Amino acid sequence: MDVPLICYDCGNTATLAVGARCDCGEPYWVATDPKGFAWPESGERSLWRYRDLLPDADPTGLAAGAGGTPLVRTPRLDDDIGARVHAKVEGSNPTGTFKDRGSAVGVAAAADAGYETVGTVSHGNMARSMAAHAASAGLDCLVLVPADAPAERLSLLARHDPTILRVEGDYGRLYDESLRVGRERGIAFVNSDTPLRVAGQKTTALEIAESFAPSVPDAVVLPVSSGGHGSAVWKAFQELREAGLATELPRLYFVQTAACGPIAEAWERGDRTATPVDGGETVAYSIANADPPSGNRVLAAARATGGGVIAVDDDAILDARRALSTDAGLFVESASATALAGAHRLAERGAFEGDDDVVLIATGTGFTERDVDAPAVDAATVELGALDDAVSERMD
Amino acid sequence: MDVPLICYDCGNTATLAVGARCDCGEPYWVATDPKGFAWPESGERSLWRYRDLLPDADPTGLAAGAGGTPLVRTPRLDDDIGARVHAKVEGSNPTGTFKDRGSAVGVAAAADAGYETVGTVSHGNMARSMAAHAASAGLDCLVLVPADAPAERLSLLARHDPTILRVEGDYGRLYDESLRVGRERGIAFVNSDTPLRVAGQKTTALEIAESFAPSVPDAVVLPVSSGGHGSAVWKAFQELREAGLATELPRLYFVQTAACGPIAEAWERGDRTATPVDGGETVAYSIANADPPSGNRVLAAARATGGGVIAVDDDAILDARRALSTDAGLFVESASATALAGAHRLAERGAFEGDDDVVLIATGTGFTERDVDAPAVDAATVELGALDDAVSERMD
């Protein structure tokens, strides 16, 4: 595909046909010219509202339905965070996570370019998203998963009937190998930090920004795994600054799970480079990336915006997940709850002022983890004839 | 609450403080004056875009995030239906179903009127939705469920920490009793066909209509249970006609599960009144309402629009559910799949022309039924070093 790319770090340029990674080792993203971009006046609700900042594509089916998710105030979380808290509800995407944004752009662009097969390396939300978007577009889909991926998760994926291959070997190497195999065999791989996916993921931030226009929020807090989404959020705000629509960038805070937090560890050390870790078990398994391909790019984003990268432990993640359900009505996956857990920790360090607008990106629905930390059900049984008494006993 | 009501059948008027049902036995809906209503120019994405047609309320939190769901084309379903098929993806609401629209309006109006507690009779999607919206708004929530409601479903509900009461006795009577108890004890019950819920549910149809403006779709096909949603869709198109925004109404087709289809049975008999049935087991349990409170109103809607009411069996429902996953990328609950199953059956009867625009309302996410009809996972295991061969074997 003839999409123009540029390296965020060294400025090298290329096109997507050549590859997703610069010779300097860092990932490319799509080169754009945001000058003259204005907030659209169209009534378009999906992410294609921002098509002037996206690669050319003619979306149909599910691809046309991604994005346009709610940004809701969560006033009952304000006191704990010491700021005005908002949540971007990415679970409202068609397959229940933010991944649909990148899949929509990736699959639409691949279909336009004549690809008949798309692919991805994932055993979770991204795989489901790619398979669903491919199904809608009538493309074949190849999903490469680790050999030990739990059958339960693959069962959800299999609903959309992709070809699934379990691959034995290093997961980080599989990521790169899949891109090579894809180039050689005409399969459009849209992995977690590849340029088309990052282009689509920008729209999370564009929607947030438009909600606050002409202002911008003071801080955005989001989970980080490969670093693709985090990179995209940074890119979006950079583009808005170039377009004259944001005079300053929000502080971007990225949150990892402590059991597997290579980017947070690098940040703590003051390093510009994330190095692989031996990740442990964590409830936030979907962001447990031991060797994140866009780790350095996220470190750059945190530095450039005055933000940071932190890690939170499983107890804090589960506490935050419960608080989102009971105090904001949002049932999210554990990985998403890291945003609130991280915001708590940042608040303790004095990161926010009382009049700050802090946006948590709730990246995905909790339905994928309905059995995790399931509450006991406390429900008395009463006769219909005794309803009045039972209600007044409990609710008065 | 001082919301003006009118009976769709006999024209009697009342206010919500008095009750939800007319002396003639039929349900009230909210009286509106749609004359002068025009499609809004605002960029508001939620259902509050249509606040000129809604009861006064000042939504915050989750209530402000309901609605604004995608309407997507599903071209791979066209051939089977013999029409241009679209799906309204209601699973994109904050708690994963269309119920959030009614909950948003009901909870926001109750909060504005000073209620501290809201309630509902439901053991499924509506209960989860009410509990989540109450949690977000800081209201208490009372959920009345049948004594035999499965613990698994209550566990999802309990995430939002409502007070749950299991009630032994007739479910139809519980519906009416809850409204009386609510009036007497100052609890705002928002049941499945009560006026505020129906007002919120109108917005499904308003969004569909605006997507087709200045035209309207030829047919809308949706599941029907209590008849609240179906009534709301009818009301919305009536309002648009009054406002001069729809010269004719789409044919409204309502689909029930054959195991429990009192409205479809009445329609087949040519009756204007639905009578209770002894419902059997069905995969589409969430629309298995043996004594639907708005059954007659749905029959009126089908007559008035030249549509109909039909029933489909579990095999057809599961086939349709699989087709939505594999050919449209939409993983929906079984009850939602009745819309496609019903459209198939209607197509066989010659209900559609090739250039008809047919909208299926996919009422809720499939995640709530992830174990129902789960596919076997067919995934070979290969070594990373053998990836090239494995891929070319399968994808060339």
TrEMBL record, chains A, B:
Pfam family, one: PALP
Cofactor(s), names only, from the UniProt record: pyridoxal 5'-phosphate
Domain named Tryptophan synthase beta chain-like PALP: residues: 65-364
Protein's UniProt keywords contain Acetylation: no
GO BP: any one term: threonine biosynthetic process
SUPFAM superfamilies: Tryptophan synthase beta subunit-like PLP-dependent enzymes
Organism superkingdom: Archaea
EC id: 4.2.3.1
Enzyme class: lyase
GO MF entry, a single one: threonine deaminase activity
Keywords: Lyase, Pyridoxal phosphate
InterPro entries recorded: Ser/Thr_Dehydratase (IPR050147), Thr_synthase-like (IPR004450), TrpB-like_PALP (IPR001926), TrpB-like_PALP_sf (IPR036052)
PTM annotation (N6-(pyridoxal phosphate)lysine): residues: K99
CDD domains membership: Thr-synth_1
Family: Belongs to the threonine synthase family.
PANTHER family per record: L-THREONINE DEHYDRATASE CATABOLIC TDCB, THREONINE DEHYDRATASE, MITOCHONDRIAL-RELATED
Protein name, per record: Threonine synthase
Gene that this sequence comes from: thrC
